[in-house]
Structure prediction request, 821 residues.
Amino acid sequence: MTSEAPADDRHGIPAFVVRVPAGPYRSLNPVTKLVIALSEVILAFAIGSWSGPILVLAVVLGCAAIAGILRPLWVIAAVTLPVVVSILLVNTFLYPGAKDPIITVGPFAPTWTGLAFGVQVTIRLLAASLALAVAYLTTRTDDLLTELERRGLGRRSTFLIGAATETVPRTITRAGEIVDSQRARGLDTEGSWWKRARGVLPLAGPVVFGALTEVEERTMALESRAFSAPGRRTMIRHLPDSGVQRWFRRALIAVLGLIVIGRVLGALGWVP
Amino acid sequence: MNGIALATAGLGYVYGDGTRALEAVDLRVAAGEHLAIIGQNGSGKSTLVRHFNGLLRPTEGEVLVDGMPARQHHVAELARLVGLAFQNPDRQIFAGRVRTEVAFGARNVGASSAELEVRVREALTAVGLQGSEDVNPYDLGYSRRKLLSLASILAMRTPAVILDEPTTGQDARGVARVGDLIRALGEAGRTVIAISHDMRFVAETFPRLVVMRAGAVVLDGPPAEVFGEPNWATLASTFLEPPLSARVAARLGLAGVATEADLISAVTRRARESEGALPEGA
Amino acid sequence: MSLTLTAVGYRYVGTSRPALAGIDLTLAPGEVVGVVGANEAGKSTLCLVAAGLAPATIGGRLDGAVTVDGLPTAQAHPYELAQRCGVLFQNPVTQLSGTAPTVWEEVAFGPRNLALPLTEVVGRVDDALAALAIAELAERDPARLSGGQAQLVALASVLALRPAYLILDEPTSQLDPQGTRLVGEALSRLVAGGGTGVLLTEHKTDLLWGLAGRVVVLDGGRAALSGAAHAVLADDRLAAWGVEPPGRVRLARTAEAAGVALPELAA
Prediction:
């Protein structure tokens, strides 16, 4: 089977291009990791009450532990903290129709119902965002795009996704330089809020214009490299996959389909 | 308006990612002095000049602007003293009209409305863009946008002016124009620092050159000395080549030559000396 | 077999003034033609038109005919033109795809687009890197190269399409002296290798002096002068057209005016 062919020295491709991801969990095919992450996201919201979301969160953390990325995952979880806190507060204090106050202080009446709902929503959100984070932390964008293109994603979509991930850091660098050049012309960004707000206009122009001129230059550069040629591009990289993973993905998608169909039918009142 | 002195003492700078950009730079620029900094990209030239208006703050050492420690002042305050034109005009230009663009910095540093008109006109004339006041900057080509970005710094009328690669993308006329405006700033007594990759341009325009390599100043002196044969090894170590006149002069065994004018006068002088020497020896 | 412009005029979208008018130019394989002129004299436009990017990709109106080995660019697909005529612009950053983790894959981008067999892709990438002597960069991240190195990688990426003609639009204008020298040496090597026809616009006439066989001077979108490189670059009217003569020409002229002999210039 070609997919299990020795990965080094195929057709003279240098070893540093072959780059087979190694290590527990990381070495899974990127598509397997993507299917797992998306399944977790859907299940976190599709299964009701407590058991579903908690189970999904446990699976996500389990995967993270296997991959050895619990530490960076905590950082990502910490970033979501403001959202988590606000969800908890809003639901606890403002859950509509709840009549079981924990305590009543003047107009404020936090409820048990609201708190429980808030915790549940939090677990769902956390499970979903960490599921995606695990996929992100264990997979190189390039590896995932290679596999998606092999499975039929068009060259334009592949390129756009790849370029978009690279655009963000470049835009940040450019914005930094633009801020500097306006400050060099006496724009006060260290003063009052009003002064800072007034400073936004001089920054927006160069960011937009820079992006626009770049698009034209990039388009021409792509055309001059035959980007618009017809047919499927030559694939130079081949990431390992296995029969087990293929069957696992199919099974996961099938189970997922059944659960979603069950939920939809349930919502429509066709099953008890 | 008179220039101001700029100085660094033991200046070191390390970027957030741990990359060291400057190491122990001691540079003293007298009020009204003109100098060019040359060196490869990444040698620390732009990092160094960004300390003079406070955009970067030293990780080690001190920066003095007009004798005052720069760290005591905001960028907006230092911008009244030190104008800095960036290398890429498209990181700077934002206005829909040339007039607004040039007036922006001048207004920020306190020019009155009545005064703005005059300043804008003068600055545009200095770069040869007079009459373009109502044009949209983005309808100008790259080289003119570059000149526009220089004009918007000139209009601030700062006692010190720093130009980061002012001749990039300019044709022969544009280079000559930039040279003229730098000389005009000199006649007005203002301090000028320019970063450039054009060896002939710096030799002909600046009385002092500073060569940087890997975050440190490796040569500092008049062009004729910096481009002299004893320094060629140092220049080559950072991939710089002396201008043609200096290379030809070395082949002729003449020292102290950086420009064409230097070369011609040195050759003429030697010819006269040898003529004068002949009768005595005869 | 040549890249031929016949009575070519061109207007950008939304402008009435022609950026180019009455241009006749022939570029044969193995020949290097330099293009000089003041800013906005039409040098970059000439590059876009010769490469077929104008009007095919950026629109505008083309008069006259541009043909590459007999194929009119106006009727060709951009990917067909890319295999006959490669283009290199000023800014190395915007020319790289930005999606390749290594230089090797960056250079492979073009051949992959053509859906060539894998062994052919590998061969072309290795050849292109070797032609510019940058095989040692193969493993590097394209985003972490110096300006000169990035420009060479961009050139290799174009060479991997094996074009018969190369259009280079001020390839050294945004580079420092080291980068300029790197690109200059690589171009010399490429030209010495023969075969490829090169159209090179440059403000740095010193670079053209050593590389170009013929030089065209553009002024206001028209060809003001055209002929053997050394004769054109030594023409008295060059400065009036906003072009800096090569250092040796300037110096010889200054010396002559001062009545000083400088035989060393010939060396």
